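User: Sequence in, structure out. Go.
Assistant: Echoing your sequence, followed by the structure tokens.
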Amino acid sequence: MSSQPAPVTFEHLPDGLGIGVARPRLTWRLPRGAAVQDAYEIELDRDGVLRRTGRTAHADQVLLPWPGAPLDSRERVGVRVRVWVDGAADPTGWSEPSTVEAGLLDAADWSAVPVGAAWPEAPGTDRRPARVRRDFTLDAPAVRARLYVTAHGVYEAEINGRRVGDDILSPGWTVYGERLRYHTYDVTEHLVPGANTLGAWLGDGWYRGHIGFDGGYRDLYGSDQSLLAQLEVTLADGTTKVVATDGSWQAAPGPILFSGLYEGETFDARLHDPHWSTPQGGLEEAELWTPVATRTRDPRTLIAPKGAPVRRTQELSPLTVTAKGDGRHVLDFGQNLVGRLRITVDGPAGTTITLRHAEVLQDGELATRPLRGAASTDTYVLDGSGEQTWEPRFTLHGFRYAEVGGWPGELRANAVTARVYHTDMTRTGWFECSDPLVNRLHENVVWSMRGNFVDIPTDCPQRDERLGWTGDIQVFAPTASFLYDCAGMLDSWLDDVAVEQLPDGTIPWYVPVIPGGPQWTPIQPGAAWGDVATLTPWVLYQRFGDLELLRRHFPMGRAWVDLMDRLAGESRLWDTGHQLGDWLDPIAPPDDPAGARTDRYLVATAYFAHSARRLQWSARELGDQEAAARYGQLADEVTRAFRARYVRPDGRMTSDAPTAYSVALVFGLLDDDRQRRAAGDRLAELVLQDDARIATGFVGTPLICDALTDTGHLEVAYRLLTQTECPSWLYTVSMGATTIWERWDSLLPDGTLNSGGMTSFNHYALGAVADWMHRVVAGLDLSSPGYRTLRFRPRPGGGITWARARHQTPYGEAAISWELTDSDRTDSGMTGSGLTDSGMTAEVTVPDGCQGVVELPGHAPLTVGPGRHHLDTRDLERSAA
């Protein structure tokens, strides 16, 4: 056993700098090999004054309450913990110290005001972004310096010619009128005694840029492009200097001629002074620097981040470079990704290089129709000064292929790099099995999550949309929360969902809300999409063990269920209004994505019952027994009404379609085992009638494999998973997909594009099957919140002979690896259990302080404690005998 716990972490943040709560919750991991925590002691170091809690009897170590007085703004506290484990009389050693530092917690802490260009600009048009700067002097060395900064738009700050931070597109996209994030940077090392300069690049971003579909909109949150920054410096002589944005700052047009999230960016290097953010900068263009205009911002709306920012996480080189013979080159990076290109180039002044992007090729050329109104084009004009390296600042593209035009001389593959960007969440989940096609499918799910978790959970990052669709993340949240630690990011986004919730309880189709076409505006309540208010907080509570997250979002979910209650009335059937139903059922025509096999009101009533039940469970976890009783009764009433309307006496559904059976089974809406058995049998029959090709859309797809598995049709579920004919998960893989497609047939079998206007090749919703792969194929699941207790229950099938998964739970790593022994593998697939009489070896890992139950096929459950355990079904059989 190691001698000390792991260092303390704070809330769901990667570090404690600039935290936005006065009482941050604490998490630590036990020393390796510890089975049970009996007690803990926390030490707080507040500017050299130590305070210890004393021995505190408690068995948990995840999101424990702050043990001292609340943090003041800017206060920096060292935190250590030691624990008593496994009945030991003495504590472990202290953990390595961690540091938490509060941001600006009170509106009165802010003296900065937004500043930006004062020159006239025409709203609703393309506008050249500004840069802003301020010179200042420090009379002594800096011993501590913090830059608190945000923008109306997006920004990148520099001090003395050096970039501050490595995040991009900050402050991200929130409901800006109510919530605008600011970031805290430690810039102590950027400063020098004497002359200094603080500057920032500005961009439109979501704030005033062109966003939205059907032509899009500009200036949705304001027409100003402004920086709001406050640099606070503690000097070696004990004095403090504050440099805040105010009327003393200056602005000038920068070398970025235009930048848009959809359109791309144009940069003229001939207009760039590389020393502009230094005390010597701006001399060549002094006449361009003019006084700024000051704007207003209520400091009460400024909030600290709850999760990581968007950052570069990977770089890819092109696999091939194809010369087109007319000065153009097409590059294939081998992976559909979200990011932008970095180029290194030398050529004559005025040479213009054009970078175009697309997800797929048609006849060897970029297929740009799926981009719709997104130009997705970056332009760089050389200044002739020698070799330069450049990439855009304030745009992102979804692409696998890029076309480079205007390159001077030979284009070498190492001159262009694709840089991958997304919210920099910690990877927490991995899966692999013996089927390489299934592995590629899982990788496609991971890549689609990466490409669509860009500050908010978006969709289709290549086209003129990229909105936070509520239904998409509702179905994908179980998969997302296994693959990455997305708790802080999604918690923050759910705060925006609550802000955008209408007074009657309606949840918008997407958040933040922007105008849409007649289908989306005015906002109407819709099942599966609105249910994000109840189902996603429940999933996050289950996966991360955060009861306070569940508590804070409970009123939003309650208002949503109460709305469904009013809409359904005494019938308890939600059978009115606009519903998307089983969106993108494979039979849906290109111009009617909601045209599905399953009655959309069946789907709506099923979700009504499901959300009411989850709200009951949430209330019970929160200790609100009155609410639990009320919503439990409501769920019972809706369930009975659902059965009476949509389930026939023989167990058939009125919509004799896979999604109808799937929601009824997985949501627990059927009457008894006989009815469940009949529904499961009919579902399996429907699947096999179509040779296990997919017949479900957004609603049914995340559920159908569980519905089959839970009713004794495991092999049919595997048939679905491993089918390669269109439509199916592996059809996309067989067609070369490296991400999840929006439509099952975004690319038709003949290699042509689907003719629909909604044709994206990067859209995570249909990848929600990965959750079933984690829980059933690999067999790694939780049985209490936060994975405090786990279940290892692999259920082999589909010819898969081994699988493994691991997940970084809040308590540590949980893992399973299983393999069928050679002597007992069948030649023609496997039986329903996946085994003959015996023949599986498995290795499971239980995190410290946790407990697991292992249930191998055909054998009784076995309880195991922390550590690694090797099991063999033949040994289990011998010991049972």
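User: And one key feature?
Assistant: The chain has 15 helices and 46 strands.
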